[in-house]
From TrEMBL:
<protein>
    <recommendedName>
        <fullName>UPF0056 membrane protein</fullName>
    </recommendedName>
</protein>
<feature type="transmembrane region" description="Helical">
    <location>
        <begin position="42"/>
        <end position="64"/>
    </location>
</feature>
<feature type="transmembrane region" description="Helical">
    <location>
        <begin position="6"/>
        <end position="30"/>
    </location>
</feature>
<feature type="transmembrane region" description="Helical">
    <location>
        <begin position="165"/>
        <end position="182"/>
    </location>
</feature>
<keyword id="KW-1133">Transmembrane helix</keyword>
<keyword id="KW-1003">Cell membrane</keyword>
<dbReference type="Pfam" id="PF01914">
    <property type="entry name" value="MarC"/>
</dbReference>
<feature type="transmembrane region" description="Helical">
    <location>
        <begin position="133"/>
        <end position="153"/>
    </location>
</feature>
<comment type="similarity">
    <text>Belongs to the UPF0056 (MarC) family.</text>
</comment>
<keyword id="KW-0812">Transmembrane</keyword>
<feature type="transmembrane region" description="Helical">
    <location>
        <begin position="102"/>
        <end position="121"/>
    </location>
</feature>
<dbReference type="InterPro" id="IPR002771">
    <property type="entry name" value="Multi_antbiot-R_MarC"/>
</dbReference>
<keyword id="KW-0472">Membrane</keyword>
<feature type="transmembrane region" description="Helical">
    <location>
        <begin position="70"/>
        <end position="90"/>
    </location>
</feature>
Length: 189
């Protein structure tokens, strides 16, 4: 049932796709706009989305007449806008100053449990046992929670100048990821 090799592979794959460490500058930027981020709510919402997508993702998208590729393209556009915001310093995401929704949108979705993560989970299902995927999701949720709880500490370590450099750098990386997701899925729609 449980395979440590599978759990390791799944955990590492999800860790790379979620890229919570690369999202730190985005998260700090969003925290400045919306106030404090609820690590527990964002982690729980991300976990619920990942597990739901594991169980009923593809049938749900089919029910809504949306294919996985269209879902991935839509997610890539949101990621692209967040990347532009980081690089240009222009605010596209307008906060409603409600920390309850700010922890969920855009943090839980699409930043953590975005189209790349959800599509990856569906594709992992083809090759791995569901119980091992659950374990991989859980391991990543623990990492996500720790990073979200440590944002202030990470911000102090990096300083304002370090955060600015990292924010711009990861903004470009985020744009590249968005373009890659868009490019690999637009031809299949």
């Amino acid at each position: 049932m449980f395979s440590f090799d599978q759990i390791f592979t799944i955990s590492f794959t999800l860790f790379a796709v979620i890229d919570i460490l690369g999202s730190v500058p985005i998260l700090i930027s969003l925290r400045e706009k919306i106030g404090e981020i609820s690590a527990a709510k964002a982690t729980l919402a991300s976990g619920v989305l990942m597990v739901l997508f594991l169980m009923v993702g593809e049938p749900f998208l089919r029910l809504m007449s949306v294919d996985v590729q269209s879902f991935a393209v839509a997610g890539s556009i949101v990621i692209f806008v967040i990347g532009l915001e980081m690089i240009l310093g222009i605010e596209f995401f307008k906060s409603d100053n409600d920390t309850k929704t700010g922890s969920l949108v855009p943090i839980a979705f699409p930043l953590i449990a975005g189209s790349g993560t959800l599509t990856t989970i569906m594709s992992l299902k083809a090759d791995f046992n569901d119980s091992n995927i659950f374990a991989g999701i859980f391991i990543n949720l623990v990492i996500i929670y720790v990073v979200l709880r440590s944002l202030s500490f990470i911000e102090r370590i990096l300083g304002k100048a370090g955060l600015m450099v990292i924010r711009k750098f990861f903004g470009v990386i985020l744009l590249a990821i968005a373009v890659k997701i868009f490019k690999s899925n637009i031809g299949n729609i």
